[in-house]
């Protein structure tokens, strides 16, 4: 196979890399405002990772709990983010989420309703009120389908099975003016000339071995593309481990058991039959913050109180079986496939890498990155969730910030580069792709990805320490050397490209984790178990001229008076009434 043929050249005012909720929401705004754009994704159109989101989307309607309001949503987000969330981002999210959810409903998203016909809301961990709107346990799929069909109505053009492998930067003014990659279906190189580029290409949890993502998504493409082009990353050490992932069968290991199971009353037991959360969070129990529940489960398993398969038990069989079937149909069906009736039997669960709070540094008002011409939205970005994300906040993030960046891009004056310019800018990179596609070394990319997963699980998982992280940095460097000796066929070329994104991301994550010498939210260091108020900062990282990562910090801006006083109300969920 050879990729030496002339690339297809595609021109568009705004290139949107990512066809999940954030990319599509931006495209809808652009189309509604009459600006040309093109949405591209690595998979088939309509099959983005967003479709896997289960439990719900947060908006402080107060339909169940009338006292709820946006300021309390913001306060919960900042408290749960352990005070390193960017307050301006949190404010945009909490203020605008209700309008975005209503808009989704208007566009056909069939949210569950209360008896009086308003959008229903359920509990999610660490939130003071019922705030999470849902479509059973398939909220992400329903939202994605709604956005796909809304974009179709507005005739938003899209391309599927396109793997972007490099951003193109104009040497004269450093402006991002396009992208290059592969059309996986037609097996040919493709180059995009664009007036602006929006990166909405998801997160990086697949650098871990156990993850809630499918194998070839959340492979760090967004951060790797941005970082290589010179953009600044933020808080790369912050990855959320979901407390409850499946453990069996092998091919489903790590897949999410939604928090909605605990939201609906599910209880956790160790192998001795003890409801152990009473030792870790006696008030909040199973609905304590995700980092607290994940660490508790991890410690139970590590201390030998797990099941033989290295899990604890999540049991919802005490809840009326019709309610379980109605509220958790996806979970009932998924476990039934493997012979488990969750209305009668417990599920085996263990923590799994779930969400990247770290990512590209953006200005949340308009999604601008540190590079002219480059914008970002959704899980690809960082700063909204700080050190830990509230369940339900990331779907809200996709639509709130997707729309914001869409508005900005629609108004932005864009200038397209010529075909000749993008062809010249992509020439070396396409040559590199061609060489890679014909590599005849000894290592299969899939084998190295598995190795990387084991390194990250061991060195940068739920509990970390300096020695482990330093070892991790060395092991990743060694893996990078091994990756110069790849054996690549067309079939595993995408994996070779994934690996090329995952390796620098893993290094950035390990080294950011070394930089943060404290424990905060999802980042727990055994050698620095306390939170240090002097480190209430964001950690920035960028590739220096010689390709070496450079680190710095930036202070967290002041929280507005309105949110501060909401924080001072110290509202917390009355966990008692969940029983
Ligand atoms: C199992 C699971 C359940 C979840 N449940 C919830 C929930 O209940 N509530 C909630 O708020 N959040 C939830 N989340 C998180 C939430 O789903 C995600 O954060 C959100 O959907 C991310 O959307 P996105 O648009 O940023 O990216 P994605 O939906 O990940 O879309 C990324 C897009 O980029 C494309 N892409 C990637 N790389 C490239 C490339 N190199 N070239 C071209 N295209 C590329 C992909 O093909 C895809 O189209 C859950 C996450 C998981 C893993």
Describe the protein in words:
With 579 residues, the protein is an alpha/beta fold. The protein has a domain at 240-351: Succinate dehydrogenase/fumarate reductase flavoprotein, catalytic domain (Flavocytochrome C3, Chain A, domain 1, Alpha-Beta Complex). It is built from 16 helices and 18 strands. Strands 1, 2, 5, 6, 7, 8 and 15 form a 7-stranded mixed beta sheet that branches. The protein has a 5-stranded mixed beta sheet with strand order 16-14-9-17-18, covered by helices on one side. Strands 10-13-12-11 form a 4-stranded antiparallel beta sheet, covered by helices on one side. A hairpin with a 5-residue loop joins strand 17 (537-543) and strand 18. The model is unreliable at 575-579 (pLDDT under 50). Residues 17-23, 40-43, 48-50, 52-57, 139-140, 162-164, 200-202, 212-213, 217, 221, 256, 354-355, 378-380, 391-395, 398 line the site of flavin-adenine dinucleotide.
